[in-house]
Write a structure and sequence with these properties.
2 copies of one chain form a homodimer.
Chain A: E1 6-7, E2 31-38, E3 42-50, E4 54-56, H1 61-65, E5 68-70, E6 73-77, E7 83-86, H2 88-101, H3 109-122, E8 134-143, E9 155-165, E10 176-180, H4 198-213, E11 218-222, E12 230-233, E13 237-242, E14 245-248, H5 259-270, E15 275-277, H6 282-290, E16 294-301, E17 305-314, E18 317-320, H7 328-341, E19 352-355
Parallel strand pairs in A: 1-3, 10-11, 10-17, 14-15
Antiparallel strand pairs in A: 2-3, 2-9, 5-8, 6-7, 6-8, 7-19, 8-9, 11-12, 13-14, 13-16, 16-17, 17-18
Amino acid sequence: MEGQLKIERREVLKEKPDFSRLGFGQYFTDHMLIIDYKEGKGWHDARIVPYAPITLDPAAMVFHYGQTVFEGLKAFKTTDNRVLLFRPEKNFARLNRSNDRLTIPQIDEEQVLEALKALISLEKDWIPTEPGTSLYIRPFIIATEPCLGVRASHEYKLMVILSPVGAYYAEGLEPVHINVESKYVRAVRGGTGAAKTAGNYASSIKAQVEAKESGYSQVLWLDGIEQRYIEEVGSMNVFFKIDGQVLTPELNGSILDGVTRDSIITLLKEWGIPVVERKLSIEELHEAYQNGTFEEAFGTGTAAVISPIGELNWLNHKMIINDGKIGELSQKLYDTITGIQTGKLADPFHWVVEVN
Amino acid sequence: MEGQLKIERREVLKEKPDFSRLGFGQYFTDHMLIIDYKEGKGWHDARIVPYAPITLDPAAMVFHYGQTVFEGLKAFKTTDNRVLLFRPEKNFARLNRSNDRLTIPQIDEEQVLEALKALISLEKDWIPTEPGTSLYIRPFIIATEPCLGVRASHEYKLMVILSPVGAYYAEGLEPVHINVESKYVRAVRGGTGAAKTAGNYASSIKAQVEAKESGYSQVLWLDGIEQRYIEEVGSMNVFFKIDGQVLTPELNGSILDGVTRDSIITLLKEWGIPVVERKLSIEELHEAYQNGTFEEAFGTGTAAVISPIGELNWLNHKMIINDGKIGELSQKLYDTITGIQTGKLADPFHWVVEVN
């Protein structure tokens, strides 16, 4: 990336929202980061500018052929006013893996992380401190070249926007009711399921709408080939505790390699709790439920951290998990990860990165 | 859709490009159509305005979760200066089917078609008349609400932009060399393959890039489940003439219901040529090639109309089709459809719609 980061400050700062009623992704801070790409010139003109609408040609390729990737991570403020990021290098490494799948040029991960830190530093008054809140960070890249031919764009825009957020799900840590999706499919090997790209989310919305109409918060996705093996829940990775062992679908090319997923596996190993990544069928879950060994279930992701599952509905087989209450392990994982993220607990794995 | 169509004309018209060197989707006309949607208000404020960049919040949902659909159709000018559209009602019906899959609100197909006709009428000097050229019409809808929660947007923008185009493929009717894709997958049943939505195209670009690196123009997609049954070629439907019979993959929920595909099936039936829509494996094609009954192969779509396939490469089995030349039936279909589209041939099926 050529050149220095330029910073153009907003003259009049926005009024901040009520930090006790933030919701998710509805408010945005005063500034944003933009870096442009042009074939032959590479990534250039990194700049922090006032948060404002962007102007694009109606033929910009992102509108037509969806060449776009994104990331999601969070900044936290400690009680002694330090600003912490949680494993941000993993997000930028994944952004580049997504870029590869979507044929978007690779970014310089370290330089973008440095520019992000400058942005966060400028916006540190936007980091809420109430329990469960944080400053959500959304880096994304869009194809901006105006052309209707189906091919990789020659121009892109990388942007980072920031949003102070409350709990991702209105329910918070209340266990959610999930429908096992038997009609729609999120992804299949050979597709884009392992990339964080818009199309995966676009295709999921209809299943989500139909689940809500039936009284469920979200869907549990099965694999695209046999519609039998568990993949993700909503837009999260998913874990099950069965007979003392924690199981999660293996990274098979169609599910996301989640940062929270990886952190949970690391913690469980540290705690001596057996954790296995493997293929896991819905029949196996149902069998465990029937023989009374299905102990806990939870989704994991940056937005929600841990989202306990209180009920799974599979073709009218209802499975009520842990009496519909949050499990002991789910709670311990949530407390540990949010504790490390907010600086309240020690950080034995060197996961947090301080913004100066 | 409430209200009348408003028209704001450009004061100074653009200089038109050289109509003999148009390429595809690189030049845009003087005006565009915009219709807005807001939950509770419906589609509103239909307007023709000067073609210009649009302004969107960086959090607009289309950038993050890809809720977007599009169409492609063409306008032609006859030798006696009439302006013709080809089966436009099918495009707007399909746009609504895509809307349904992407949970975008339904449009009033007739009203949007009327507004499109007003736009075309205003831009009729942009319709090129050289053989193989036309005015390409790109209707598309994008989710514009600024929000990072994964759900259906409450705000959308429908736009129609126009681009004078030459042949879609630089090769024109020269038969293309196609690689049978055995790694990447375009779509799977339960996904969005039958919808015209950005994510399908985004996921295809990497396969296209790798095919080009190996000396092929495009890929032939196999099904997402067994990676064995033929689906599409590039972004087109595909037909094969084997032993006097024309075969094309059946509409299975993961391939596009093409307007050109439908027109070809209709023509073949009219001509008394047997045409069958069914599952068709790559092994079956290869067997036909080996026993000498594989006569022709071609892709079909609005952009290229007919794109003859001269070579198919399947795991290093090279199939040279019709000595690498365009087949007699492929040429006749191309001549007939483009003849009807441009008013040079009679229109027995009432496919063309005149713009007054």
